[in-house]
Design a protein that fits this description.
127 residues; globular; 4 helices; alpha+beta; 30% helix; 8-stranded mixed beta sheet
Length: 127
């Protein structure tokens, strides 16, 4: 798929974000989870990955762990979910984003990591 048009037309395609997950490092995951459960009215779903413990609570992804392990998670500002991941990545790249990690399969779908032209690093996920 190739995008033709003005910069503004290309950026409109990027704005078709289905959801945003805010990433937040915390020192004590057990202490932080109740606050975010109360704030969002959601129950936490906990899991771990490569020495990092995580809890998904509403639109928040809380994580804790040793500095060297959390750097992989902390380097990404937020997770953006798209109905059409391929189109979103292509449109972002056309708008000036840099692909840090190309689209790859994951146990929950597919993901890519992009650095936006003004510095933010975002995980893009979708089918």
């Amino acid at each position: 798929m190739t995008f033709a048009g003005t910069y503004e037309e290309v950026m409109v395609l990027i704005m078709d974000i289905d959801s945003v997950v805010v990433r937040q490092r915390v020192e004590d995951l057990d202490a932080a989870v109740p606050f975010y459960e109360e704030l969002t009215g959601s129950s936490a779903s906990r899991f771990s990955f490569a020495e990092v413990t995580l809890a998904s609570v509403g639109p928040f992804l809380l994580f804790a762990g040793p500095d060297e392990a959390v750097q992989r998670v902390a380097g990404v500002t937020a997770t953006l979910t798209f109905a059409d991941l391929d189109a979103a990545v292509e449109a972002a790249e056309a708008g000036g984003a840099e692909i840090v990690m190309p689209i790859q399969p994951t146990p929950n779908g597919r993901r890519a990591v992009l650095r936006h032209p003004y510095g933010g690093v975002f995980e893009y996920v979708g089918p």
